[in-house]
Amino acid sequence: MSLSDRLFRRGDLHSLAAPYALDALEPAERVRFEKHLRNCARCADEVRTLSEDAVRLAWSTAAPAPAALRDRVLAAVRTTPQEPAARPEHRQEYRQDPGRARAPQLPAHVWGTQPPPSRSHAPRSRPLFVPFATATAAAALVVASLFAVQANKTQDTLNAERAQASEIAHVLAAPDARATTGQDTQGGTIGVIASASEGRAVVTLSGYGDPPSDRVRQLWLMRPDAQPRSLGLFADDTPLVTSGLDKSATSLAVTVEPEGGSKQPTTQPVVQLALKSVGFGG
Amino acid sequence: MEADELLVLVAGGDQRAFEELYGLVSGPVFGLVRRVVRDPAQSEEVAQEVLLELWRSAARFDPGRGSALSWVLTLAHRRAVDRVRSARAAGEREQREARRAHHPAFDQVTEEVEAGLEREWVRRCLEGLTALQRQSVTLAYYEGYTYREVAERLSLPLGTVKTRMRDGLTRLRECLGGLA
Hints:
The structure holds two protein chains of two kinds. Chain A is α+β, with helices and mostly antiparallel strands. Chain A is 28% helix and 17% strand. Chain A has helices at 3-7, 17-21, 27-37, 41-56, 67-79, 136-146, 155-173; strands at 178-183, 189-195, 200-206, 215-222, 229-234, 240-242, 251-258, 271-274. In chain A, helix 3 packs across helix 7 (155-173). Chain B is an all-alpha fold. Chain B has helices at 3-11, 15-37, 40-57, 68-89, 92-100, 106-113, 116-127, 131-141, 147-154, 158-176. In chain B, 77% of the residues lie in helices and 0% in strands. Chain B has two domains: 1-114, RNA polymerase sigma factor, region 2, helix turn helix motif (Rna Polymerase Sigma Factor, Chain: A, Orthogonal Bundle), CATH 1.10.1740.10; 115-180, Arc Repressor Mutant, subunit A (Orthogonal Bundle). The interface between A and B is large, with 51 and 73 residues.
């Protein structure tokens, strides 16, 4: 099962409260669950209780810290600036997800089995054709750009990204890894590094900002003669790592969906990207 | 002063309050981190990071969501688990464990200083869990394994492990009851 398949099956989310309280989730899963918690008061209550329980396990472990540690910490405190008080969180009431129950049919031309016809504002594909085995400097640049914007990120997000970095490295290591990017008219960019032989891809979005509240961006795989298949939800600006891509896939598409994602797309794609240049669709 | 009040002062930049807070939480933080991370040098490093993070992020503490000590220990546990996982991923752990064999005094230190009551209660209550509940909970909390890893180690389905973790924590709560 691919990482994204495992991470984004929403049905399982509630049962993750206890593993979450024990810090027993994988970093990306943790980020995803925390995002879910913001919109689920019931889960937040449950997690609070279970976390208090888990902390009891720490009671039996106390031990005096070395004196040198005290000196180092107190010295560091004198020169370490503090974070300003965080702005109050937007506490949201628990809501049923509107739109999850139904998945209106969209016009065939939107969710046809072929990539959309080329239009002036269609994504502009810019294949990079980087054979990574022979271009490690280029690969390093791509990875660096994936993780370039680190200001304002929490440690948890950074940890999640570090875990993803190893998945990404795996994609990069494939001999047929290729990169391509596409832009929409609003200045948003979708980037993909994919390996057709491994059926894996790393997808990034940039220039889109936060989705509207209670909405998420969902990534879809477009294949001939098949319904769009969900590849997962974007969490903030974390790259989405996905595997199990069919060789016949023709394009990727991103839509804005209700919190938790949809079974099938319910809105028009904000951006699409043909996969031919990265070795798919053959 | 209680940790809760101290944290509020620390958030305002009060270094004396931080010193006092350090006195209250450094033992629990260091002990927990060392329980999870094991390696003494790394434990000190992680504990230092956590204690400094308290200074930096004190403003994030929200008294409405639980006690200061819970918040501090939750933070410490998470950092410890992150460290032990990356060490494990890097394959360093085996080497460290081998080296630890040369530090026989290490665990005894903990035993000597620990206030007996809480330790004893927690141990008794853990013994009251079923074996699978106990293993699921302790492999995750004390050893830093993810629930997927716990499932693999215990050869259990994922769903079962999640349930055992929940039941284990709930029973622990009932058992520890008024001890606060």
